[in-house]
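Researcher: Quick sanity check before group meeting.
Model: Go ahead. Protein one:
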Amino acid sequence: MNKYINLLTAIGLLVAPFAQASTVTVSGSTSVAHLMEVLAENFQKITTHSVEVQSTGSSAGIQAAINGTSMIGMSSRNINENELNDTTKAIVIAHDGIAAAVNNANPVQDLTQEQISKIYRGEIKNWREVGGESRPIVVVTREAGSGTRGAFEEIMKLQRTINGHKVSAITPKAHVGSGNGMIKTIVANNPYAIGYISLGSVDNSLRAIKVNGVIASDQNIATGQYQITRPFILLVNNKPHQNAQDFIDFIISNDGQRIVAEQGYSPTK
């Protein structure tokens, strides 16, 4: 009898870790991570599953989903065909604007896309050239591998081709910040800086300027008037772990999409 009980106990110990392995692992874009953390918090209130979100950058998140080190990868840029394989699929969960942001003390209210591109190429170097004070423009950009940077470069035509490879056309004199938070800190503390961040990350510490006369807002993104936008994408296995699928189902549900809208992003439905 004791042997029988001991055998059951041993089996129970072996099975327990698998029964408890309910953590949904998510990694990737720092921009998407902000939204995913809020979605995870709400999801955990209605389920026994836990969700772990890590900000590692879009490229790293895509790779993590493909090699299986994360159940879900996050990207804030379009996924290239060569980054996908037959075992993975992409799911768009929201649309986000990329805001061109300046210090609150900067008098410039509006720039054209062409002006912004020229600023980032280093062709426009002084604020007086675009209606501001006679001060040098401090250009601030995201780090290489950032989904926000990749989307911004693509939309603003800030890429050039060298030997068949696309490379950044952003001035090498630009200050580099890792993550929306660092970009916000640099711009908020420098009256002559310009940066770009996720629209959902804009707060009263800095100001999103109009682009082509259009305010960066959810409504203008939805109508197509504000054109500096990109998708928020999740990359998952075609046959995801059930816990990951439950989380995804919640995100694309009416409740999940309501949270997306409340956080300042454009829902997919």
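Researcher: Fine. The other one?
Model: Protein two, sequence then structure:
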Amino acid sequence: MTLRREIEAQTRQLRERSGGMIPAQALESRARMIALRNTIERGLMLALANDLRLAISPDALQEHIANTPAFQVDGRFDPTQYKAALRSFGMTPKSYESSTLEALMLDQLQSALTTAIHTPDLLLDDLEALTLEKRQIALLTIDPDAMEPPSAPDDKSLEAFYKSHQAQYMTPVRVKLAYTLIDEHSVRDDITVTDDEIAAYYEENMPAFKTPETRHVRHILVKLDKENPNAEADASAKAQVLRERILAGESFETVAKESSEDITAQQGGDLGVIRRGMMVKAFDEAAFSLEQGAVSDVVVTPFGVHLIKVDAIVHESVKPLEKSRAEIREKLIADKAIEKVYQRSIDLEDRAATSDDLAAIAKDLNLRFKETDYLSMNDDKAEQIERQAKFVAAAFNTATGALSPVTEVDEGKFFILKVLDRKEPEPKPLADIRDEVSQAYMAQQNEQSATELLTGVKQALSEGKSWDEATANLPKGAHVTTPAPFLMTDLKSDVSAAARRAAFQTSLKSPLHAEIVRDAGKLNLVYLTKVLPVEEKDRLPEAQRTAMRRQLSAILGQEQYEDLLRDLHERAEVRVNEALMKQL
């Protein structure tokens, strides 16, 4: 793949992942950086592959191409489809086969390099211990919000805080737009549907206007005894006796409640309303061959032996044309509207290519035109279309005075916009946000006090004081807990994931975790008090150790590969032609 194509591919991927929310310039810069890194790494690895004399046989290459679904028709390789697919990619068979050969060679090399030579048992034992070992800690927690509130800041302090945190108090980027929208509603007035078209649609789609026959049925089920070789004959004989009782005048519902072995027995065997094809074939054929009120002969299905009764029949009906006319007209208008919308979008693109007067274009094409007030990216006052990701991306990535591309925001819904003005972020006046800034100032003071308290405890511990001595006489908002022992991945523990990780980064020789652990707005010191060794009965079964070994092997293999890449970078003389990069 050429560097230009790599840049284009990375740009597409980043745009799709970000939903168009990354500014165009930043997105392009990021795509170029990734593409350049990938291209350099590919070149280094290809050079290594050549040095190692790796090769892919012609047969292996052809087999890979033949097994690519994009080149197949009905599951078989098709040369015509192959060439057509490559044309859509802008490639020839020669260029595609060359790039595929490189890709297969790189896959082969990377597979070899990422296979770790050996996973040491000691490392596996350590990982097992990390997984199964339980630890207990003492936890000093301070909630800055629960501490004694500091004094409100004076004007000088507040001004200084505001200026040092000004990036937090900026207005958002805002744009003023003009845009036009093409959708079904904007073209409906230009659409006509004739009576002949309605009649033709009715005839061509007659099945859609038919209501199939339905039947309300009941049944009695006698299940088959799987242990009995004569099960079907015995069940049929039992069902026949039940049928004779019904024919002699007993109620089908009563016999079903007494004798049916189906869950519908208590409802008198009521299966509700069925259509053809809803039941298994034998049951279906019997049910739809009966007259209303009749009881079937014995019917055998995979579920057992049945007696069926039809309570009611609703025969097939056809909705007349006159009663279907409005429905058909609406369907034809909708179909024509979609076609017209796409044609109108092409007309809009043509007009926008020669003029940036969006109001005049909208008037000529009879489209809705709107000028907005200033909008931010997440503006509650914006209309629904103005909040959609594609619209927002176009609004904030289009230069002032320029038109965006005609963009399909939903199926059959297009827009084009013009940025009339853009206001960059600017500091909000302190007078307007004084209370907000004051609250933030006091929150910072509380957090600073909490940090100083925890630092003091750490200092006391380093001077030889015990944990109990160092954490005595705590102020309001601070408390010590001793949670129950936990595993590192113990989701049921009251200890947060951050504190659990900290506990497993310390040892009994150095029990205090060096860093303050911040979690859910609270500050914590983690002090390891106990390590519970893994008992033999709790050790992992061999199958899990084998899976863990494979995971470790994959991690070590990836590290091995990345180490090699770093070494190749250091030894290679890589030079970037900045002038050429700017042209791409």
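Researcher: One line on it for the slide.
Model: Residues 321-352 form the longest helix (32 residues).
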